[in-house]
Records
---
Amino acid sequence: MNNLFELNEKFSMPGVVIFEKRTNNIIDLLVSNRYADARICLYGGQITSFRPINKPDILWMSSNSNFEVGKAIRGGIPICFPWFGPHKTDNKKPQHGFGRLMSWDLTETAVMPNGETLIRLQLRSSEATKLFWPYNFIAEIKVIIGKMLKATLKVTNTSSGHFEYTCALHTYYNISDIEAITIDGLGGASYYKHGEPGDFKQDSSLLEIHKSVDRHYHDTEAVCIISDSSFGRKIHVDKSGSKVTTVWNPWMEGSAKMNDMPDDAYKTFVCIEAVNSFDDTVNLKPGESHETSVIIGMEE
Ligand code: TA6
């Protein structure tokens, strides 16, 4: 359903959930409760804003992002599915899969007993998804907006045979200055570098970023903490169902090459991603499901 009138009739909740149309018929769902404000774009099933009351956004959004069918939204929490990164064998297929390039159906909006808001979105296999991937599946994004933001991608195999997929909750965090933050949690973890052979290890307990970084830390389920003294906050990044954590920042040259972000955008975001890929690819038998979650919160 992608009709503003029908969405309002069926899913709006006065004072809590409303809908807003962007250009190109793309619809956003806006949540407001006693803990936070949030915005979710039905295109891509992408959370683009999570703002605890009276605080700067925890998620970063590019001011130059496309909001156009066929193009990815730059910022928030893109859902990479059913593959992470380039397709393994066919470079004509979209980077990071088709999940972020399709409209997701809203299936539920609800207020929880503690005042948190629950939102569910679904993407089911269709002729359109089978152009890219031959399997039957149901993918669901469950979002809980409270003091913390909890986002879960649940994938169920509804095919008659087994399939495997890779995925990521590719979260962009809003920071004051990339050179002023530290990331705690990955000390001692091993990582692959994007596009470079070998296995590396982070010896220091804190990660500081002073050049482009594209690292896939493996065998880690650790909580990461982004300490941002200028913003006077620590962002807690917890996850489950994922053993790979990717850290990405494209730096100056990379930002300048991407026409959907300002040239100096790299200064104000860092991606810390909950990933299933490499040695943590998901294999599902018929009827089985897997859940990949992030739990994001703030300490002052
Ligand atoms: O997750 C890191 C990464 O795969 C990088 O290699 C970088 O390309 C980034 O994602 C962004 O990808 P995108 O397709 O959104 O430009």
---
Amino acid sequence: MSDKTSAPAGGLKTVIVGAGMAGILAAIKLKQRGEDFVVLEKAARIGGTWRENRYPGLTCDVPAHAYTYSFEPYAEWPAYYAKGPEIQAYFEMVTDKYGIRPHIRFNAEVTALDWDEAASQWTVRVAGGDAIVADVVVAASGVLHHPKLPDIAGLDSFAGTKVHSAQWREDTPIDGKRVGLIGNGSTGVQILTAINKRVDKLVHFQRSPQWIMPVPYFTYSDEERAAFRADPSLIDAIRYNDEYLGAIKRFTDGITDIDGPQMAEIEEYCRLNLENSVRDPALREKLRPNYRAACKRLIYSWCYYEEVQHPAVFVETGRIERIEPAGVRMVDGTFHELDTLILATGFHADRFIRPAGVTGTGGQTLDAAWAVRPTAYYAVTVPGFPNFIMLNGPTGPVGNFSLIDIAEMQWAYAEQLLDLLRQRKARAFAPTAEAHAHYEERRIAAAKKTIFGSGCTSWYLDATGVPASWPWSYDAFVDAMKAPVLEDYALSA
Ligand code: NA7
């Protein structure tokens, strides 16, 4: 059955792809303007990352009061850092408070988006055959949502329970079990700190040790929550204070000036954390990375070094030979017998809205446009793909600060492009190829000089080894998002 709806006369029709944090943001903003929009969500619930990830220990490494919409501060956070289910509950609450749920079509996976040049509209196809015609598409489909399995021989032969962190099952055997945990990015570290006291034995396979940035952790009392409720400026004081926002600015200054004082300070914090927290010198050396702090995404933890020293934990830094039905065989012959194998091995970070097929002007596809690397002009728009807005799209500051702040700033930028359509100054906008090429040239040159390109592997790097992230400071991003440079856009009447 086809559900072909056309844009209403006099108003824009927008399709938002994804009901995670960014999609709900766009929906709230469009609803407040009284515009026509629909959110297409592949799953049966909202929440994106916070719906998908349910592993034990799941915590956001941005302080809770800074990981909310700026227009919807939240007094109820139990602690300085929020746990996954608490964040999911926040987004559920906001979705209902702003009346967004009736605008969401659940179990509606977008399979294709085709730009119709003559009509200046997108046809958005949904699995099962429906098609929706819209003036604007907002790709709010997330960054880390395609789990990456390790390419280790014999992975499928494991006879116990095997689970990727992003496909967690409640019945995963942990209590009293021999558990192997492969990977020690933010996810592996969080899982270890949550299960180490439940297991019989936990072997943490670390191909590369990680630098750990010590951070404060504390809970909020009922009195403090009451104070937040009574006076939201107390929340702002946390969100915008020197301890959080000041640190973000110093951090982004540091990643772009890798031999400067900010980076030296970050490195010293991490080094002292290792030296002062790990008592056994042999374990300390196992946990010492051979690359610079913040090259891989810096891990923020208040308890990792304490928890990794629990007697049930064995840190294995040798190379894995293969996985066998009963466990993991190391290159040196050591065999770890296991009941459960947890794969905290990350995500394919280059997918964005794909595998949906996106076809822009002249029949060009996003796959072709992104043959070398996924890219977007200032991370928001793509040449050749008119009226197509990406939130948390490629080349944005994914690893540097709150993705909610980023999405809000990107939305404010995009709104100014939408105004061109609303005011009938254009029927379509897209950045010019020249402007985008100039942006990419400068971005790539700068990215190679950031700490992310200082000699390690990580999901920040694209297929050519260039950091895919925004390579400039927080302030530079704020400035860039204030207003689009309209001369860099091709507008069609
Ligand atoms: P990450 O940060 O990509 O970490 C993946 C981990 O898995 C990392 O330690 C990898 O080691 C390890 N890994 C991957 N493949 C293998 C194989 N084949 N053998 C051994 N070890 C392997 O993913 P996370 O889920 O922890 O975090 C992703 C982001 O989510 C995080 O940055 C936050 O933004 C939230 P490597 O370092 O490559 O040697």
---
Amino acid sequence: MAVRKIIRMGHPALRQPAREVAPADVGSAAMHRLVADMIDTLHDYGGIGLAAPQINEGIRLAIIEIPGGPTRYGELREQPLTVCINPEIEIVDADTEGHWEGCLSVPGLRGFVERPRGIRVAYTNLRGERESLSAEGFLATVFQHEFDHLDGKLYVDHIADPEKLVFEDEYVRYILPLEEPPAK
Ligand code: NI
């Protein structure tokens, strides 16, 4: 296991569509090593999701893990570590909801993005089984953000209002206090 380097916006590999993982490769030792590296990398950089292209591995693989409680994104509901191979998204609620997003490949910035608020996600797990789950709100945004990486897209592509692309420190200072409900 190892912490890998996360490539940043401007690296051409972040703009290339990733390729499908072949069924024979899903449970391979190499795939398990890669996922272990991604988990180490996610923990080391302190993120909530990571897609394989962000460590310059051009395959359709992403992991998401959200610790419950207060984070740099506000108060979040826990999502246990979820390893998604060859994921697909179905939009079940096309009404949009906006969230401030960040990305380990776009360090130091936050941007406000509106996306469909309800989705169903299907993916292959590390045992080769197809699984699915439903996600709403911020969690739906996180899955859409990570899976965008597999199509060579970044959250900045979706920012409608350029005034809503800000530095993280200024986000925490000026915007987050307005976003969060008063402490209970
Ligand atoms: Ni990202």
